Structures
1.
Amino acid sequence: MTDEPHDAAATEVVADCPRCGKPLPLCICDSVEPLQSRIKLLILQHPQEQDRALGTARLTAQHFKDAVVKIGLSWPSLAKALGRPVDDPSRWAVLYLGSAHAAELAHGRDVLAIDSKGQPLPHQDAVLEDIEGVVLLDGTWSQAKALWWRNAWMLKCTRVILDPAAPSRYGKLRKEPRRDGLSTLEAAAMLLSRLQDRPDIETALLASFDRMLVRFRQVQKELPELAPKPKKRDWRRRRG
Ligand SMILES: [Zn+2]
């Protein structure tokens, strides 16, 4: 955890980037090119998600002019979380976590809209074509689950699950207990590109992610206290 003495010393001498929140040696903000996206993005971050080094919420949002990142546990409505009116919450997709059978259900689709019982909705193409915004829950699996349960308005949104063809590019850098195993950035890349047939969005986001990981590995060698290896006692694993 960050209250260890050597971590405290490191954060005192190295400033954080005001845009991505990462210690400056890990920041790749200058290389981020803004993208146009018809589908809007809202990222809700659990207040205890503290992985500044490898977290991707703010980096993801930086790719889009009007993406919103909110830190908290609960909001009374989608409009309140987003900070502006929403005509029809059902046209917003929430990436749902209980996707244990995603691969079986998906039948070759990598984005699937499901009902409250976890079954695929009829008329997938029509439902997904109507989506105008995406909500992502940022944190460990248990943190994301807490966000899901504390925000009843998500039941009015359209639940979607992902069945990614490839595992997360985090590789061994992070133990991710979630079934779909993707970072917030990778999930955004998949959803925003598939839902509006914009492969360029996925390409750009994943390129940024790769740059972030390259930078992380460099910093790991030079300033290891800023880019710690996952610890055996890591709470992420214990709670996973
Ligand atoms: Zn930055």
2.
Amino acid sequence: MYAFDFEKPGSIADAVAALKDEDAQALGGGQTLIPTLKQRLAMPSKLVSLTGIAEMQGISKAGGEIVIGGATPHAAVADGVAGDYPALAELAAHIGDPAVRNRGTIGGSLANNDPAACYPAAALGSGATIVTDRREIVADDYFQGMFTTALDEGEIVTGVRFPVPEKASYMKFEQPASRFALVGVFVAKYADGVRVAVTGASEEGVFRWSEAEAALSSDFSPAALDGLSVPADGMISDLHGSGAYRAHLVAVMAKRAVAAAG
Ligand SMILES: Cc1cc2nc3c(=O)[nH]c(=O)nc-3n(C[C@H](O)[C@H](O)[C@H](O)COP(=O)(O)OP(=O)(O)OC[C@H]3O[C@@H](n4cnc5c(N)ncnc54)[C@H](O)[C@@H]3O)c2cc1C
């Protein structure tokens, strides 16, 4: 690790100001960033911790949506939304291990946009809105490819708003060592249609499977997905699984998600 300065502001405004320094970087739960620093893959001049900002913590409800503070750890999401949005709670409860869930934050996960992360599937699959210190970004515009988002330099994810669906489920085929998704499929049924978001599979990061969405919007049953598949081209191929294997898993996990959502 390189030497760096450290600040722990108590408000979003102070964090935004602290992040204006050259090469300053936000720190959420550190579950991704700290290992990156240890491997000397990043060299920020200053880390600005967001976990002491009360207005970025916790869960509330407003206008049919669940609002989650950007610095809320996964374990708190798992507990806090279990009654209102069980599929999201289950997703959070199966991220990594207890240490990751107690430190890692939803804002950090969405800012990082790891192609195998779970929250991007929930946010895109729910049509969530990402709230930052300066604007609101709908999920369809927010995710822009592997490790790439619409966030500008120094922009902070202060919260996320999730519309609550009628039914939903997330099915993850875990990479057993890390518990990241080899393939994860989030299915959510709303009054105006079904959304299907896939993580872990594509070289472009999380994506919506529009063919499945159309089929499920007219018939919300696993059988509606019979014969549908995603092309293996553009799927991630690595030591954990080939592109063809991941493409196959997308259809399998989508069916399982629909069955579990009921
Ligand atoms: C062993 C292990 C297993 C894991 N398994 C899973 C899994 O199964 N599913 C899954 O989804 N994830 C998994 N993760 C990732 C985990 O969820 C991390 O918590 C997450 O990727 C990053 O969140 P963080 O709060 O730790 O962010 P940090 O590591 O602190 O930061 C990550 C990046 O986001 C930026 N950042 C942090 N917070 C904000 C913010 N509020 N606004 C803007 N930028 C911000 C940082 O500058 C940095 O670039 C795993 C991690 C580990 C170590």
